[in-house]
Design a protein that fits this description.
The protein is α+β, with helices and mostly antiparallel strands and 180 residues long. The protein contains 6 helices and 6 strands; from the N terminus they run H-E-H-H-E-H-E-E-E-H-E-H. The longest helix has 10 residues, at 165-174. It binds a DNA duplex (12 and 12 nucleotides) through loops.
Amino acid sequence: VPAKPPKKKAPKPPTAAEIVEGFGDRGYWLLKSEPDAYGLDDLERDGKAAWTGVRNYQARNLMRDHMRDGDLVLYYHSNADPPAVVGLARIVGDAYPDPLQFQSGHKYFDPKATKDEPRWLLRDVAFEARFADIVPLADLKDDPALEDMLVTRRGQRLSVQPVAEEDFRKVCQMAGYDQP
DNA sequence: GCCAACGTTGGC
DNA sequence: GCCAACGTTGGC
């Protein structure tokens, strides 16, 4: 009888669903935004913004089913130099339909969405803080403690990612930001 | 600008 | 339900 192949030691990194399961009273997230499109500067100026334009089902489901009022957000600049977590935001209120899905001709128009059966939802997001020291993606990848963060994983494109509380705290620490 | 890694679409 | 083609994301 051939021996069983040795058990692979490689521990499977947690999925988004598993990270969400670990949430307590408050959830933690990472939201990606391109600074040229809507950066932390814009959110600071506006104070609060509707997080429009999410057109990915997994991201939508996370926003709809698992985000809660008061959850905290790592604000991440993608397509930036360097890509980095640049500050904090906060989820405000409940999910509601993304109005852009109904605007014919808009980039985010969805012909299959109706007001009775909207397809895309969003949340409002409020400015919370700007990090004195941004935390580049490269630094997140360099830290073994953060290897379970979705954003550090190869090929991960989700623009709405749950973050484990300990990872959230660690990133704040790296940013020189005292407990939110 | 390149391109790997995805997600979506649509023919069959 | 399969899967090739296509479009997008986003680091590098």
